[in-house]
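Chapter review. Work through the record for HAT C-terminal dimerisation domain-containing protein before attempting the end-of-chapter questions.
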Amino acid sequence: MHELNTLCTKLGVKGFKDKEYQFLHEYCTVTRPLTIALDILQADCPYGTLLPTLEALMQRALALKHTLSSMTAGLPDAIVQAVQTRFANLLDDRGALLAAVSCPKFKLRWMRDADRREQVKQLLQDECCTIASPRQSSASVANSPVHQGEADFFDFEAQPEEAYSAEKEVMMYLSSSNDLQVLHDFVNIKRIFLKYNTPTPSSAPVERLFSLGGLVLTPRRNRLSDQRFEKLLLMRYNHWFTGPSPQFLA
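Structure tokens for HAT C-terminal dimerisation domain-containing protein:
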């Protein structure tokens, strides 16, 4: 407050009163989680980041209510109401829920309600069954050929094959680490991740890509082929990988 009053004195304007400074301080405190959420969603993140970010924003906003005066006491409720109104069709959307739970970074940790966690867990199991069925049915007939004489010689008792269990895969996935690389160990959940996390929660990364395209396709490079332009753009933008082409999720 002292710094603000000093600045006002130097500028020749009226200084802040105690109530005005208190309002500014509380307003910045309440809106800080909102600014953090915006920075997260406008960065390079998968679609599954959306629901956990909104949930964390609403929880953090409501947790500040008891620290506020009557001047800003209604601001947390206003933020929560705005989020629920704006994203009403996404908070319980099947695709958004699967995108979030298939992200190892989040899984089910962002949900506080036990019943909702069980519902989303069952949703993930059902999706695993849907994705796994055609893959396993095709794999059962794709055995390597065996000569008839050799098959007669090794005519042992058939061993029972363990049936695929979506519940087991989901349980092992939920108890694994939060590293993105664990998706290699869970084939069906990896496919779910790729299916539902292709979009981005914000258009900001796409806008940055278009802006960067103008720096690559300069007047002195007006004869670049489409393939060469895409390669140069990828090399300029994809700063996440500095080595050879990544093989992850290939």
